[in-house]
Amino acid sequence: MSQRYPEILLDALHNRGTAFTTSERAELGLAGRLPDAVLTLDQQAARAYAQMRNQPDDLARNVYLEQLHDRNETLYYRLLTDHLAELLPVVYDPTVGEAIKRYSHEYRRPRGVYLSIDRPQDLRPALADLGLGPDDVDMLVVTDAEEILGIGDWGVNGVQISVGKLAVYTAAAGLHPGRCIPVVLDVGTDNETLLNDPLYLGVRHSRTRGKAYDDFVASYLATASELFPRALLHFEDFGPGNARRILEQYNGRYRIFNDDLQGTGAITLAAAMSALRVTGVPFKDQRVIVFGAGTAGVGIADQLVQAMVRDGLAQDEAVRRVWLVDKQGLLTDDMRDLRDYQRTYARPAAEARQWQGSGAGLLATVHQVHPTMLIGTSTAAGAFTRDVVTAMAEHVARPIIFPLSNPTERIEAMPADILAWTRGKALTASGIPVDPVELDGVRHVIGQANNALLYPGLGLGILVSRARRVTAGMLLAASEAVAAQAEVGTPGASLLPPVTNLRASSATVAIAVARAAMAEGVADASPDDLVQAVQDAMWQPTYPHLNGNGHRSTS
Ligand SMILES: NC(=O)C1=CN([C@@H]2O[C@H](COP(=O)(O)OP(=O)(O)OC[C@H]3O[C@@H](n4cnc5c(N)ncnc54)[C@H](O)[C@@H]3O)[C@@H](O)[C@H]2O)C=CC1
Ligand SMILES: CC(=O)C(=O)O
Ligand SMILES: [Mg+2]
């Protein structure tokens, strides 16, 4: 123990600061190291909340909360769980985008594991020397930061997306913070601003690609799953070329989950299920335009196609009900620059030629297709213009419009505008949190179609069932469980459950996911009382009794 500053006060997982009791202080050698008063967790939380509120803006609040995170995790999570709807946008989307841009400048201390492509020999010791055994880890969130939210390549700064995603796992689904590891694969960056910034903290060269990159990812997967065989390997914000390729290559071998592809697909399917309960039009009769055919967009298209197939369509009939529009316009089969995963959905070139030539834009496609659903995963702010939205509303009574791009500066249209342009007819949900919209006497509550409303419960379900794989059936169970919690009976009702209720919602999702894992034979645990098992697995931000050595008697 350092005599100048006792170790326990530096150990955020165990530190209680002014809440250490007089006898604990004596036992731990803290006499004289803390002011005299002994506060309760409630009192500490009230003080920290007031300090947080006094910060001038959300970025400063984020920095304040991260410092608290580094000082006292119990108090940090107490604040987050008590004020989930208020603080999720501060520690996560959209403010986390700003925090990532500023990371190298606001840096205070390390959090997580930084794996440098220039030192592949360090990968194993970096994970092995954490002092965690094979049964001690439930979750690793890893990013290579090539496509952070919709703000692009942020190199090592992207570690904060792994930190933010894990904060949501703990706050929203009770994953134990000591059993979760944020990781960044620092493979370089193509962001010139970072490369020219003297304070940039990452590997200072362009992004490594090809075999060296692939070997690094393979080494990460093999090492992480060997050292922590129970952990879910969550992938976040990889670039479109790598995200799907890695998932497809390793899905059968490791317990791996791509949040942008699978999580976003599943939460959007949940929002769509709720919307169809309002319109009464089944999936097999939908016509879907996905604007922005990258990781998230095609992940969503895949989920919607599967829903149409479950509704009775053949696979190719379902695929023909989806139109992908990207930078080139409508994706058609004569285009040479399509990615593999886009090619499945490419329309016959002849179809678009009849309209206005290859690469018809979004508006032209809307005019021709008369879509029932329009999904935005493009990062193109404002792309759902009044013309686009009103053109869609001309042909369908209740257009379903989901502008899902994050953060706020990237959203395709604000829900308030979509509702105003369609005179309240649109059924909408957005990736960012937005306030309810009052229109013609109806209060429209906007559901947050962000994977954060689904992946925490999915992760908890995987943990409780010890599922070896993440299957399509488990993702579907998660979507259905989320959708079932939205009460869409009244005009203007949200298509998704509220963030205020996210902890309960995550528990419900976890039960559904665990049941699906058991039914599919991929679960290594089958608790008799699943409801209780899920409750027991959820960590609570409290100070448990300490044993004589200053350690928690329960964890
Ligand atoms: N709401 C949610 O839960 C989620 C939202 N997203 C958001 O979706 C957006 C895309 O994310 P990813 O799919 O991971 O990125 P990505 O880079 O894989 O895909 C983006 C796609 O949009 C296309 N695009 C870019 N500019 C365009 C334009 N002006 N017009 C048409 N297409 C354009 C790109 O060519 C690319 O195909 C981001 O803003 C991200 O925050 C992503 C995951 C989850
Ligand atoms: C929400 C999320 O995962 C994204 O925007 O990338
Ligand atoms: Mg993401």
UniProtKB/TrEMBL annotation:
Q: Which InterPro entries match?
A: Aminoacid_DH-like_N_sf, Malic_enzyme_CS, Malic_N_dom, Malic_N_dom_sf, Malic_NAD-bd, Malic_OxRdtase, NAD(P)-bd_dom_sf
Q: Does the keyword Amino-acid biosynthesis apply?
A: no
What cofactor(s) does the depicted protein rely on?
A: Mn(2+)
Q: Which residues form the Malic enzyme N-terminal domain?
A: 69-251
- The keyword Metal-binding is annotated on this UniProt entry: yes
Q: Which family does it belong to?
A: Belongs to the malic enzymes family.
Mind telling me which residue stretches traverse the membrane in this protein?
none
Keywords (A to Z) from UniProt: Metal-binding, NAD
Domain Malic enzyme NAD-binding as annotated: residue spans: 261-518
Any matching Pfam family: Malic_M
* Protein name (database record): NAD-dependent malic enzyme 3
Designated gene of the protein = malS
